[in-house]
Design brief:
The protein has 130 residues and is an alpha+beta fold. Helix content is 19%, strand content 34%. It is built from four helices and nine strands. 37% of the residues are buried.
């Protein structure tokens, strides 16, 4: 399984691509595989303030509902509206068209608490298979 080098990761399987004080967030390829077929996405509202490691969105699959946590604190600046009509994009393109929301970081330093690609790979390898 590939994980892009330019992203930072959470222990709860979200990713963030940071550029300056802005970030784009989604779930990892590992997460979408565990979630299975995504059938509904509840995205945060524009201008909503989210806190690091707190619920920012919800993804429902044929299995269950899963909370999606904010990798960093900030204010939502955009959401991927395409997911409302095509939530399966999360499964098809977790790092591309399946992104979930963008935010303005309130504390850029929080990025340093996130996992590097190697740390995330190690985490996934240690996770027991279901």
């Amino acid at each position: 399984m590939d994980f892009p080098e330019n992203l930072r990761y959470t222990k709860t399987h979200e990713w963030i691509a940071v550029q300056g004080n802005k970030g784009r967030v989604g779930v990892t390829a590992y997460a979408q595989q565990e979630i299975s077929d995504v059938v509904f996405v509840e995205l945060p509202k524009k201008d909503q303030v989210v806190q690091q490691v707190k619920t920012a969105a919800v993804v429902e699959s044929v299995k269950a509902a899963f909370d999606i946590y904010a990798p960093v604190s900030g204010k939502i600046t955009d959401t991927n509206k395409t997911l409302e009509s095509n939530p399966g994009l999360i499964n098809q393109s977790p790092y591309g068209d399946g992104w979930m929301f963008e935010l303005e970081l309130s504390n850029v330093g929080e990025v340093n608490s996130l996992l590097t690609v190697q740390q995330y790979k190690d985490l996934v390898q240690q996770t027991p298979k279901h």
